[in-house]
């Protein structure tokens, strides 16, 4: 018999029943079930506060039984949560914004469909029948409502996370933590204020659905940009699979016998931007075998043999909004024949800095200005530094260009470093002695596909307690052979002299220190934005107390 003990445990891992659909649910689809979810998705098509069944703590044997029998056998364990006080309330929980308060609205539909990245159709899941999903573009200081309908097949659940936007907790889109997942056939309205402006994106936060192409760009335009330009365009980068995604444990065992990802690995080394240095950018050998079998890389949904083209006129000044929406790829990006002037990091303004290339991990964004002063046909190239697939590419074509030959970047010039970035806004709130300190290690687990923070695998991991108003300092040390792009929901943090929401922690004892102010109450996920590392457990929750 399943019991209702151990009230201190806040999340459990529930494996769904296998599904026999064309998309193969072996991607894991592990649900992180909060003991008392506060916000549920229902047919009323808006956020609302609801009661829900309490899921008890389970032993491993009981979990396996629950996976086989479903959750109905434990539904009798209903009780109120004790997380927020004796009366079951949590005074720090923010309330959702009412849908009727929105200034503007958009609609997204998650559905099965197909797209043609390289001349032949691939079946997958997508938003609005396209890859990437429809661009959402709004002005800053807009209250936005996005109505999301789940038309995915075979009972699949879903959510949307607004990556980088410090929304209120109920709109953050993490299943089991900030909301119940959106059930098949149901709708859910996310309501949030588009502040601050910047380059963001949206994606599913359920299982490996991001790898199925459930993602798209989100642009919040500034009222008064600190740089001048004629127009802006989105450069949306991501990797893609020709087959349904599988958990890391499966493709690792198929490719290399399940060898571990600890300190013994080779390949890329400290290939990230953390710590001020880049390290090696090699991507072959053992490290490539720790990546999914990607078919290639996309720019705005187009593969390199049929690339996206950007038409420009001589003298134009273009703001390129580069978004790394990949599942597991770090790119080095350059524009042939042109220098870039980086103006924003993760949407936040920085003093303009010249660079010939930059490296960014999954979840990071850079805005870069390019002056069209060298007529011809040039290549925008994104090289996967942690894989051996062909680069992603787009074409920058001047009006009237006669030559059809496309000239690529050489990558022999100045490469952007984190230390080059200087925020345009005050960092005073992030200075001084922190109120809370966390010294966390990132590592591979003993099982293939297991990834840990301080030796614990989410969801079986202790929350990190903080209080509203705290100055929080987090030191991350990477004891694995793979870099980790670490992303914090609901907040920006200081790295060096810049504000970001995602930072790459280099491999092989690379270290990064970040500071943030606890100014957005709720329970916030902090995790590696490699989709497989997150699914493997490299996550924690910052819990306001």
Automatic annotation (TrEMBL):
GO molecular function, one term: oxidoreductase activity
Domain Plastocyanin-like: 113-223, 287-401, 445-543
Protein name: Multicopper oxidase with three cupredoxin domains (Includes cell division protein FtsP and spore coat protein CotA)
UniProt-listed InterPro entries: Cu-oxidase-like_N (IPR011707), Cu-oxidase_2nd (IPR001117), Cu-oxidase_C (IPR011706), Cu-oxidase_fam (IPR045087), Cu_oxidase_CS (IPR033138), Cu_oxidase_Cu_BS (IPR002355), Cupredoxin (IPR008972), CuRO_3_CopA (IPR034279)
Domain of life: Archaea
Organism per entry: Halogranum amylolyticum
Gly residues composition bias: residue spans: 257-280
Gene Ontology biological process terms from the UniProt entry: cell division
Keywords, ordered alphabetically: Capsid protein, Cell cycle, Cell division, Copper, Metal-binding, Oxidoreductase, Virion
Annotated region (Disordered), positions in chain: 80-124, 244-280
């Amino acid at each position: 018999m399943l019991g209702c003990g151990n009230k201190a445990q806040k999340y459990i891992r529930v494996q769904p029943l296998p599904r026999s659909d064309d998309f193969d649910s072996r991607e894991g689809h592990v649900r992180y079930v909060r003991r008392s979810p506060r916000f549920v998705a229902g047919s009323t098509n808006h956020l609302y506060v609801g009661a829900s069944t309490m899921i008890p703590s389970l032993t491993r044997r009981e979990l396996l039984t629950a996976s086989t029998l479903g959750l109905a056998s434990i539904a009798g364990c209903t009780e109120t949560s004790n997380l927020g006080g004796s009366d079951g309330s949590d005074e720090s929980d923010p309330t959702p914004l009412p849908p009727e308060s929105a200034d503007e609205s958009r609609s997204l539909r998650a559905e099965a469909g197909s797209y043609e990245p390289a001349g032949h159709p691939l079946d997958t899941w997508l938003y609005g029948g396209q890859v990437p999903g429809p661009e959402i573009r709004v002005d800053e200081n807009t209250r936005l409502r996005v109505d999301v309908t789940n038309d995915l097949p075979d009972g699949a659940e879903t959510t949307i996370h607004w990556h980088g936007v410090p929304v209120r907790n109920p709109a953050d889109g993490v299943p089991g933590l900030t909301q119940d997942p959106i059930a098949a056939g149901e709708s859910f309205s996310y309501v949030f204020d588009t502040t601050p402006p910047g380059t963001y994106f949206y994606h599913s936060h359920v299982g490996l659905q991001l790898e199925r192409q459930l993602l798209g760009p989100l642009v919040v335009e500034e009222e008064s940009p600190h740089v001048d330009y004629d127009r802006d365009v989105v450069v949306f980068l991501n990797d893609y699979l020709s087959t349904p995604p599988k958990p890391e444990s499966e493709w690792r065992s198929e490719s290399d016998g399940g060898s571990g990802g600890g300190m013994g690995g080779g390949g890329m080394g400290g290939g990230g931007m953390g710590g001020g240095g880049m390290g090696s950018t090699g991507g072959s050998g053992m490290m490539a075998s720790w990546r999914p079998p990607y078919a290639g890389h996309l720019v705005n949904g187009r593969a390199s043999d049929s690339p996206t083209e950007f038409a420009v006129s001589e003298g134009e000044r273009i703001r390129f909004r580069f978004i790394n929406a990949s599942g597991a790829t770090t790119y080095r990006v350059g524009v042939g024949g042109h220098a870039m002037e980086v103006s924003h990091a993760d949407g936040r303004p920085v003093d303009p800095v010249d660079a010939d290339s930059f490296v960014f991990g999954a979840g990071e964004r850079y805005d870069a200005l390019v002056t069209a002063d060298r007529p011809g046909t040039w290549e925008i190239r994104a090289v996967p530094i942690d894989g051996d697939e062909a680069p992603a590419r787009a074409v920058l074509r001047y009006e009237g260009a006669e030559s059809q030959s496309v000239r690529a970047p050489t990558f022999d010039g100045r490469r952007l470093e984190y230390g080059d970035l200087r925020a345009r806004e005050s960092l005073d709130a992030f200075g001084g002695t922190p109120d809370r300190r966390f010294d966390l290690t990132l590592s591979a687990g003993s099982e293939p596909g297991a990834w840990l923070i301080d030796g614990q695998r989410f969801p079986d991991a202790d929350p990190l307690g903080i209080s509203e108003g705290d100055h929080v300092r987090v030191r991350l040390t990477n004891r694995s052979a793979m870099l980790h792009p670490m992303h914090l929901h609901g907040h920006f943090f200081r790295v060096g002299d810049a504000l970001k929401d995602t930072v790459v922690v280099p491999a092989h004892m690379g270290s990064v220190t970040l500071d943030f102010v606890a100014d957005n109450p709720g329970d916030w996920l902090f995790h590696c934005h490699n989709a497989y590392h997150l699914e493997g457990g490299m996550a924690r929750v910052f819990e306001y107390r």
